[in-house]
Amino acid sequence: MNGLFSNGQNNLASVGNGLTLEYNQKKQMARLYRRGQLIKQADLTDSTEKRLFVVDAVEQGCNQTQLATTLGISRQTIHNYMETKKYFGIEGLIHGYNPQQTKNRRKQRRLHSSKRSSGNTARKLEQLRKNKREQAQKSQADLFDISAEDKKHVRLKEQPYSEQYDWQYSRYAGVFCYIIALIHQWKWLDLIQSYVGVNFKIFLIFMLMAARNIGSIEQLKNVRNREAGLILGFIRFPSRTKLWENFYQIVHQGLSSRLLRSYFLYQLRSGLVSLWLWFTDGHLLPYDGKHQVHYSYHTQRQKPYPGQTNFVTCDNDGRIVDFEIQEGKGDIHGRIKSICNNWKDEVPFTAVQVFDRENYGTERFIEYVDQEIPFVCWDKYVDTPSLNRLSDELFVETLTFNDKCYKYFESEKSFSYTLDNNKPHENRSVTLRHFTIWNLSSNRRTCGLASPLSLRELSACDCVKAILSRWGASENTFKHIQNRHPFHYHPGFRMVDSENQQISNPEIKELTREIQKKNKKLTKLCKELSKAEASESGRKNSAFDRLKDEIASLEQEIKQLKQQKNNLPEKVDVSSLENYRSFKKIDNEGKNLFDFATSSVWNARKQMVAWLRDYYDQENDIVDLFYAITECHGWIKSQSNKVIVRLEPLQQPKRRVAQEQLCRKLTGFFAETMNGKKLIVEVGESPLT
Question: Are 464 and 361 in the same domain?
């Protein structure tokens, strides 16, 4: 490379893609080279020539961040240059540039003003991008309105596995089992493409992340792109920039709620989830950012923590039936009612709702009975010493559950509450089934509750099993889903104004603190009064009389403070207070899309483990066997009418037989892509040797 100046005081900087930028010390001149060959030279003191040089460098493929750092400009400036050329062309980028510096620039601008665009360019670019999004959504809506026969032939070349190639190695071959199960059992790709069209790739990548426990999109940099792309059905794995662009295109459409409802509804109608027992529990999604958000509850730390609550409902086999993310601590009582009401018209009968002590309460029990919602839960207020004094002869029924022995007996327990103290005739009451359970293994006793027989004719044994399934070793779904999936990952984090700006009245807190202080002082004065003796001389300024007067005055003050406290509203809006920030709410559109893929993978895993039980009799090892199969390396071949994936065989003979049987079962479904290719998975040695 020749120096820009004879003294050779030049700097060289790599700007990516084999490009090198040479510039002098003051960054007045610059040259762009590709592998030593000069491409372009520019005078950076000329603003227009600098713009053209930057745009050409980006179009040549240089890294925009490295270019911005080298030239001392911002990344946003380069983006503005590219957008201006994209929408307004070279003329818009030049803006009436006059190469003859001796002429009057103001005069030249006046002469050519009719040819120049006017107004704020940034606002124009914003409007153009908005129009482009609206046009894309309209085109997509028109696409979905075409007939089913025409839709089958739309962009077949962009469907997964559209290319043809011979055997290729991939260390992600085991993920193909998930793809076959999701396509056959859940019609997964058909559902996704009915909402997002050809932008389905991001969901396949989310599926890969959940299947291989990849914590975030950023961690995809550790994935072998070509090998993963082959298994997912596309040769070219999208770059991180393209992934985020694809992701935000879907997020801006706001379709997650409709997509989730369609997915959950299909599961119910197809019998992919059970209608027997539904377990609902809340899980903290913590937030550690700078914005003010409502508080949830951290169970492990046993204290409030800023964040959201993810309510997940599973069936008795651990499959996810429904989920919803609520702001702050959330309302599990309202969530259970919402689940029953949402799917009431889609199921023949309401599933038995199982929940923990958090949802315990007389009013809630009565409301469930009034709305004909069957339920089972633990009894919250249990007198353990009284239970231990019960005669062993009362426990007449025996049950073995999770390799543990239990005894139990059934009784009744009544609950009542008063709507209005002035109207005792309006009292409400309900009688529930009460079960006393004795764990013979640990010699511990506890109690559970169930709704009346009129709501659902459950046997006593079924009720006890449901109670025991909600806690301990049986609660596998809630405990293990966080270990097997990136449960807390939230792509596309965005904050919006919360609709709930109510907080506990801070004046009540101050008055409570003041009342406590005065009560403490009152207690001290009462102790002093008990030790003082009345004066026999009749003096009125004795210590005894003084203490009595102070106590009377203090009691009056406490009474006034309590009256003042009772007159204050319990909740106030933060906008009416000084030095209080308004609450923000986390936008969960991107989180719902990611959790949709996570839930799909989890349910597919549950289904395939159930199939695997027919070929493998060691229950303690069956889940590990399944993960060993889905993490196998292998080879893939795409032909005109089928896609074949061959997994490397497991070493142990018994495991290999189960692996082969599962692959045969998956192949026997004859699952097909939209372009008509059959999906086949098999076990064998390398075809490349």
Answer: yes
> Is residue 160 domain-resident?
yes
Contact (Cβ atoms closer than 8 angstroms) between residue 414 and residue 433: no
Q: For residue 638, what are the contacts with CB-CB under 8 A and spacing of at least 6?
A: 161, 163, 164, 165, 677
601 lies in the same domain as 629: yes
At 152, the pLDDT band (50, 70, 90 cuts) reads very low
Are 375 and 395 in contact, with CB atoms under 8 Å apart?
Answer: no
Say if residue 207 is exposed, middle or buried (CB neighbours under 10 Å; 0-12, 13-18, 19+): buried
Higher model confidence: residue 280 or residue 5?
280
What DSSP element (H or E) covers 190?
A: helix 188-196
The larger pLDDT score, comparing residue 574 to residue 534, is at 574
Write the DSSP symbol of residue 541: T
Q: Is residue 312 part of a domain?
A: no
CA angle at residue 337 from 334 to 340, to 5 degrees?
A: 150
Residue 37's pLDDT is 82
User: Alpha carbon of 396 to those of 378, 435, 459, 465, 660: distances in Å?
Assistant: 20, 12, 15, 16, 47
Three-state secondary structure string covering 574-616: HHHCCCCCCCEEECCHHHHHHHHHHHHHHHHHHHHHHHHCCCC
In a domain, 450, yes or no: yes
- pLDDT tens-digit map of 71-85: 888 888 888 888 888
Radius of gyration of the chain (CA): 35
Does 216 lie in the same domain as 192?
A: yes
Distances (CA, A) of 303 to 297, 299, 377, 393, 488: 6, 7, 24, 42, 19
Write the DSSP symbol of residue 350. P
Question: What is the per-residue pLDDT across 167-192, written as a single tens digit (0 to 9) for each?
Answer: 999 999 999 999 999 999 999 999 99
pTM over 0.90: no
Are residue 436 and residue 370 in the same domain, yes or no?
A: yes
Measure the CA–CA gap between 500 and 232, rounded to whole angstroms. Answer: 42
Give the position of tokens 């007449």: 396
pLDDT tens column, 260-279: 999 999 999 999 999 999 99
* Nearest-angstrom CA–CA distance, 589 and 315: 25
Please name the residue that has the structure tokens 């920030």: 581
Residues 509 and 557 both lie in one domain: yes
- Does pLDDT of 307 surpass 80? yes
Q: Which helix (H) or strand (E) element contains residue 295?
A: strand 295-298
Instruction: Please indicate, yes or no, if residue 421 is contained in any of the structural domains.
Output: yes
Higher pLDDT, 127 or 164: 164
Same domain assignment for residues 145 and 164: no
pLDDT greater than 70 at residue 551: yes
Q: HSE on the CB side for 389, CA within 13 Å?
A: 4
Q: Which of 178-187, 379-388, 421-430 has the lowest mean pLDDT?
A: 421-430
Tell me, what's the pLDDT at 145? 45
Structure token pair of residue 159: 């469907």
Number of structural domains the chain divides into: 5
Residue 410: partners with Cβ closer than 8 Å, 6 or more residues away: 397, 433, 434, 435, 460, 463
DSSP character at residue 10: E
Q: Which of 325, 351, 572, 566 is nearest to 451 (CA)?
A: 351
The residue written with tokens 């479904």 in the block is 669
Give residue 136's domain range. Answer: 123-152
Contact, 470 vs 355, CB < 8 A? yes
Q: What single-letter amino acid sits at 25?
A: Q
Q: Each residue of 14-53: pLDDT tens digit? A: 888 788 888 887 778 888 888 778 888 888 888 888 888 8
* C-alpha to C-alpha distance for 285 and 298, rounded to whole angstroms: 9
